[in-house]
Amino acid sequence: MIHATSKIIGRGQVELPAEIRKIIGGEKIGDSVLFTVLDNGKVVIEVIKKRKLSELGGSLKSSIAFIDLDHETNATKEIWVRKRARETQHDGKSMIRCECNF
Fold it and tell me: What residues does the SpoVT-AbrB domain cover (predicted)?
């Protein structure tokens, strides 16, 4: 069992000591910490890791094949460029140039 102390600072914030963060795996900015107060008054701390969107690939079923992230990103950009070009068309006579920076 490891014990470490920390002080409560402004707005009720507590910094987790480095040795505790290493043990529970809370190393990255953006990770969340779940506090659970048990019936006996003890507090359980669990780290909920922030996940990258790319880690979720394949977690949902789809009838459409996912090729790769770059391909999907480029395909999405093309769709938006075409959609924006259609929206900027004026009475079917002139087309306003659409420049999209990604």
Answer: 6-53
Confidence of residue 77 (pLDDT cuts 50, 70, 90): very high
Residue 25 is assigned to a structural domain of this protein = yes
**Is beta strand 8-9 parallel, antiparallel or unpaired with respect to 43-48?**
unpaired
Indicate the pLDDT class of residue 42, thresholds 50, 70 and 90: very high
Q: How far is CA 65 from CA 24, 72, 75, in A?
A: 37, 10, 13
CB-based contact 88:80 (threshold 8 Å): no
C-alpha distances out from residue 91 to 20, 85, 88, 95, 98, Å: 65, 13, 10, 9, 16
Q: Exposed (0-12), middle (13-18) or buried (19+): which is 3, by Cβ within 10 Å? A: exposed
Domain region containing 22: 8-48
The token pair that represents 42 in the structure block: 């003890």
Q: What is the pTM of this model?
A: 0.44
